[in-house]
Amino acid sequence: MTNKLKGSFTLPGESGYEDLTLKMAQKWGADVIRDSDGTQLSPEILEAGYDIYSTVCIIRDHNDWIRKHPSNMQQTFLQSMPKIAEGDFLSIHLLDGYFTQQFEVNQSKESVELWQVFDRTTNMEVPKRLWNYEKELDHVVIKTTEPFHEYTVNFLAYRKWEEINMYNHVTNNWTSDHLIPVDPRSDEAQEYLYKWMDNWCKEHPLTNVVRFTSMFYNFVWIWGSDERDRNLYTDWGSYDFTVSPLALEQFKKQYGYELTSEDFINKGSNHPTHMPPTKKLLDYMDFTNQFVVSYGKKLVDLVHSYGKKAYVFYDDSWVGVEPYSKRFEEFGFDGLIKCVFSGYEARLCAGAKADTHELRLHPYLFPTGLGGAPTFSEGGNPARDAAVYWNRVRRALLREPVDRIGLGGYLHLVEDQPEFNDYIEKVADEFRLIKSFHAEGKPYTLPYKVAVLHSWGHLRSWTLSGHFHETYMHDLIHINEALAGLPVDVKFINFDDVINGALDDVDILINAGRAGDAWSGGDNWEDDRVISLIFRWAGEGGILIGVNEPSALNGYKNFLRLAPVLGIDIDRGSKVCHGRWQFTVETVDGLIPEGAGVKGKDHVFITDGKAHILAEEGGLPTISIHDFGKGKGIYLSSFQVNNENTRLLLNLMLYAKGDLGKALYLTDTADTECAYYPNAKRLVVMNETDRDAETSIKTSDGDIHVALKPFETQIHELS
Amino acid sequence: MTNKLKGSFTLPGESGYEDLTLKMAQKWGADVIRDSDGTQLSPEILEAGYDIYSTVCIIRDHNDWIRKHPSNMQQTFLQSMPKIAEGDFLSIHLLDGYFTQQFEVNQSKESVELWQVFDRTTNMEVPKRLWNYEKELDHVVIKTTEPFHEYTVNFLAYRKWEEINMYNHVTNNWTSDHLIPVDPRSDEAQEYLYKWMDNWCKEHPLTNVVRFTSMFYNFVWIWGSDERDRNLYTDWGSYDFTVSPLALEQFKKQYGYELTSEDFINKGSNHPTHMPPTKKLLDYMDFTNQFVVSYGKKLVDLVHSYGKKAYVFYDDSWVGVEPYSKRFEEFGFDGLIKCVFSGYEARLCAGAKADTHELRLHPYLFPTGLGGAPTFSEGGNPARDAAVYWNRVRRALLREPVDRIGLGGYLHLVEDQPEFNDYIEKVADEFRLIKSFHAEGKPYTLPYKVAVLHSWGHLRSWTLSGHFHETYMHDLIHINEALAGLPVDVKFINFDDVINGALDDVDILINAGRAGDAWSGGDNWEDDRVISLIFRWAGEGGILIGVNEPSALNGYKNFLRLAPVLGIDIDRGSKVCHGRWQFTVETVDGLIPEGAGVKGKDHVFITDGKAHILAEEGGLPTISIHDFGKGKGIYLSSFQVNNENTRLLLNLMLYAKGDLGKALYLTDTADTECAYYPNAKRLVVMNETDRDAETSIKTSDGDIHVALKPFETQIHELS
């Protein structure tokens, strides 16, 4: 191994533990010390010669001010719990079922004007003259109902408890004042927050980097009154928490049309990221993004004026920040920080346009980890946790560089964790070494340009909506996680992109989702230009990989609109009397790794009898490949990421391209992966299991045999 | 047991086996002897004093005539296999992929006028001027195509091989002439067949009953060219095989609008019975039914004029006969014969309006049974088969009487089957005894009127479309089979019936199906009158049982339109970010029989937290009950019929009505059932397993304890 590199590491310092702070900074090669939620940095740390990060959550901790200016509280539309009329009159109490520590009804005139009452049995709005709001009781009374129809009220509620603060109170028994989130939409709020930020900068002369957590608006997180159903609605990518009468008024001025409460409530479904966005939603997101960038930039400029840098945390109140939007660079942020559990999150950070990309690794230095399991407390094994997380992230970092890594939390917790401390030292060293290889030139990739096609395209590259454990039910997050470390180029495109020529440089196109969802594409598949462009592209040699219900749409001959390419379709009921092709499973040497597997899906059928069935479950094809002109269609009835299935995905690409068993710089087992840096002449080989592993790699120097310890990284120099 | 009754039994006689015929007639108490496909009755049998049934399939065995009058061959619309244009020109060979021994293109002018070419990528018809038919090659050439769009041609084909005959040739290696089906739609065909029938009657003076097999049109059965995909499309209830240019011309005259080929082809889905019928389809079915009844009646009258009776077989070419239509009685048939594998088929026969209802029991006297397993040949066990089939049918016959039973096939096969012969003797005796109880008065039923709600209503009572093994993938056939022997009143209603007050006498409403299918109801759920009528009915005490995706429809707040009653809904993707209620499974004593079970269904969720979850699988509710006003909603995520689940269904009804553990005349184990005839004062108890069983029954005489041998029927006299 080369000489030890230093730097590129952010350490959470802790006052009262000055010696430990400086000792660990030395051991882990830190160049930056940060504070965390709940920790302070003492002068001894601040003045030790390290760069200093300080966290700022600009929209909370202003309770005195907001209590005097309550119309600046953040808001959201809510739908009352549904109620069925038994007669011709109905009274609905608005907040029934909601967590009243989080919400209160916005009773103002401009709020009530936005409310709507719906007969959900007919999908018709009840005219305003037929209902009224009884303020004292928080009741809406519908004066003329159809008996035995179901009614709901869309209303506007203030949010009186910032959700991250609320979560920590409820989950971790915090007891301080409930922090109220400020909406910076009004002039008075903007002036107040600007002054506050200015003052903060003055009071923190030793801070080099202000780390914003994040900007103004949290992802939506609506709580219920019942502990059996606390989480009513949450979506990391959704804009529900940005709304206010003022915002809607400004929207109308700018876009020339009005948004209604129902445009947000959408029959109670809201607009989760997992469903295809409507034109109105995209307009509203653009409108909000514009505001967040424009006011955000003022704050960033202010920070810069004090000679400090401004980084932004890519989580929590990140809504409207959109690091993959065209406006992101306008903020002027100096860095982007992402906390990562998974490889795709490392790619999400690495792929955004920013000067500095930094990863906050897991585990955080907390007694208890996410999901409630112990980390730095009795029963925890933080060194093993760190290895497992690093194992997920490492393969992504080999494909696309980031600039820095770091930790968060309470440093004192590592005092008696020598194994953890040694492991982090190793991780930091590995990270810096890999970074140095990237600095010399890109790693070798197969000559495959992979495009993932879904409704959001580039804007939702890599992530679906938040962390893996929040979106595991979608095949695409599994695909993305597999792709994050594969030696292929990846881009994310939407349906407009297809029409605008995005397939021109694409070798492999992936569409993976459930019928009607954002990932499959829903109504976007109505556009016959998209269909025929993909037919043409596949006919000319493109490889389509469809997972679960790709290109699914009702109303056409093929439920999977791309069925002619795949040779596979799915019966929605109307084909139940149509016979099914008999088939035998074909075996291709070296294609399906031992332990790989795809879950079967009901109602899948073979269309023209020409698909080669590579695997089946219960008589249903699960993996198939079908010729289409010079190209191919590959169908997978589902996809679950693990080492074996990740290799399966790669092997299917190699097989379809005629490269299976021939390509260089690939390990020959699913439990190991490698990356080759031609300029640095270094081959990095990883064991991705907690067992010993051996593998061989075809290189231009001939085959290289490697034996690896659990999770080990080895670096070999090639000639 | 009382004195042995005789009669009500139809025996298949066989010439050459006169002694056997008369011996078995005696043993089984037959009063009728019949011929079968492939058997003759000799004078010795014909003149032995028994009534004689003769089978007539009126539309086949006229090859000489049809070859001289080929335009009277039966026809069907077919869709060419799809093809993708690569340039601006496409040639499609029509019969590619079809079994050319079954089909030939109808090349006549009036046929080609009905053809349509579709761009299936856009769903648009290609104008007729842009394509032409090249007769010599059976090609349609599309002169102007959009590159990389998919095209199909709807065309009309003659059917040159009657499908039942074709099946027996191909499956059982028959080698005789291929019988060509005659379409009696034209005047010349009607005249010819009428004369033929007249002549037949003259030539068969000893025949008492002409058994029609059945009328004119077989259910659709389209074969493919490839043995791996022989069965392209089949549906026992579908009208595809009734079409012809003449029929469509007559339809237009009568209904004032034109049907196109696409009205039949429907993007290649056709119109399986399992999908909700369109208005056009219902019109066309009505039109065909009218013709079949009117010409059928002429033939029946002719038969009657010879002093013979006319029975109709409720299978094979039964299409257009529709024993549950309002016109059925107009035929003047004297009897209806149904072959039965299952209890619901016995109810299907029993429930139709006819003077005589007769069941053809299984196994048929054939060497090989349905599905290819041996029956009366090496390795077969016909006595056991008979017991299993009788076990299914018996419980239905206890609820609703039929008049006769009988067998079919080759009698010589029973020569060395004393066990089978004894068992049939027992069955015949049991049947006659049960029939005698019915004659004294109806069996006791619980005071529950059950209505099954689906798109077809009464017209498709009991059966979905054919036998159980053809429709096992639908929950409803399992429900129907369970209901067939339960002590409740059952009716089948459609959505118009609901609007017209059909719920007024209903205690329990069942809706069981997959989203969009005929059994769930599809677009019928758009009608808010239906929704609010069911809400009202349930609110006033009705018990709704929803299975799988009951009342499912996109576009509304609730995907299951009746979710407010059920307290359960299903997420189609838009609720994936909405939290799920935590629940614990509640146990109700005696409700769920040991061994009962319901398969879990993805995406099921609890709506208002008030549903009582009675069973779950993988964290998803599978059985739940929810209060709604004075009524209840019961949800089952699936239903598979067996003894335990049949009892589960009954128990859920009893529980919802407050009668669980209290009702009289029910066995206390799932493996046994009973029926009580108050007028006859007889309690019939059945063991429905192949093991010994014991059970207790609460009666007005107190508890009765019974021990039963495998499949045994016991009859107890009550005071």
TrEMBL record, chains A, B:
SUPFAM superfamilies in the cross-refs: Class I glutamine amidotransferase-like
Domain annotation Lacto-N-biose phosphorylase-like N-terminal TIM barrel: ranges: 7-445
Gene Ontology molecular function, alphabetical: 1,4-alpha-oligoglucan phosphorylase activity
Domain Lacto-N-biose phosphorylase central, chain residue ranges per copy: 449-658
Lacto-N-biose phosphorylase C-terminal domain residues: 665-715
Chain coiled-coil ranges: none
NCBIfam families: 1,3-beta-galactosyl-N-acetylhexosamine phosphorylase
Name recorded for this polypeptide: 1,3-beta-galactosyl-N-acetylhexosamine phosphorylase
Organism from which the protein derives: Butyrivibrio fibrisolvens
Lineage: Bacteria, Bacillati, Bacillota, Clostridia, Lachnospirales
